[in-house]
Amino acid sequence: MSTEQAKPPRLVVVEGPIGVGKTSLVKRLAHSLGCDSLLEDPDDNPFLERFYQDPRGAAFATQLHFLFQRSRQLQGLHQGDLFAGETLVADFLFAKDRLFAELTLDKHELALYDQVYSRLSMEAPRPDLVVYLQAPVPVLMQRVRRRDRKAERTLDSGYLQRLADAYTAFFYHYDQSPLLIVNAAEINPVDNDSDYQMLLERICNTGPGKHYFNPAPLDLS
Hints:
Largest sheet: 6 strands, parallel
Strand order of the largest sheet: 2-3-1-4-5-6
CATH architecture: 3-Layer(aba) Sandwich
Number of strands: 6
Number of domains: 1
Shape: globular
CATH superfamily: P-loop containing nucleotide triphosphate hydrolases
Distance between the termini: 34 Å
CATH topology: Rossmann fold
Structural class: alpha/beta
Strand content: 5-15%
């Protein structure tokens, strides 16, 4: 089935660790599908740069700011009548917010965070498709360095490895929506039209359950 014949899901979420390319992919999907996008705004978080410099000292404030930001965005979806039939693509899954909290908060902060999270998470709509982008940490670090965001200049590979491992564990158990797991290490769907068209077709034709998209597997010989 071609992408012209297929109808994309109404709410598509693209997820993955820092540097994997989720936001850039969401912007391209929104453009080609003629729909709106819902994007995280790390530049709006005044604690993020401090977090990368002092993770222990700034973790709680950073996490709560992102939690409230995402909650406000998702409340706007309900007010905008998400399910009127229009497609929307987002670069974050509300359910994964706790993944970052588990990595960075101590047990007392996490208990307090959970109280706030439990009040907000009930408002999150369930995606019709989640696209999970994967790539090895050296690839992620290379992409982070290439985009050169000020707040990320002190980001270390150890934290990124823990984050990538946490994403892997999270999506291993994830069953709340159809899931498409993409090997994003060897393809460039943002800048390469052929890669993008292959991925777009899979997104538009992915059915229920868990699926894998690995168009250029690594040579393991």
